[in-house]
Amino acid sequence: MPAFDTLTVGDVVAERTTELSRDTLVRYAGASGDFNPIHYRDDIATSVGLPGVIAHGMLTMGLAVQPVVDWAGDPALVTDYQVRFTRPVVVDPATGATVTVVAKVGQLDAEAGAARIDLTVTFDGSTVLGKAQVRVALAR
Known about the structure:
- The chain is elongated and about 50 Å long.
- 24% of the residues are buried.
- The N and C termini lie close together (11 Å).
- The chain contains three helices and five strands; from the N terminus they run βαααββββ.
- Helices cover 24% and strands 37% of the residues.
């Protein structure tokens, strides 16, 4: 577990790139029970105005927080996690999609011994999660 006293606002605490494929979406659908056809059928996705099959929002949200959980060393240290979905992750049938996460210390709360970790989550050069913030309780 990282020590609170070693952190500085602006520190990058984790980075990760994740490759998604249509197979990833099928597996996530099975695990989550979310079989909405926008996650596996291009014709349905485009008929509702999407550019193509998109990754599940909760899949994107989960893969975005995982590097912070790994850095903290214990998922129980994550006391709050919030995001705004700003852009879908379109998963091409041939090339898939690459999602990149950079986690930086955004704020330190010395009284609580907690850090706000701000996530920058991008796909195809654009941010897909806005105001993505994770609160992590750390030992002092």
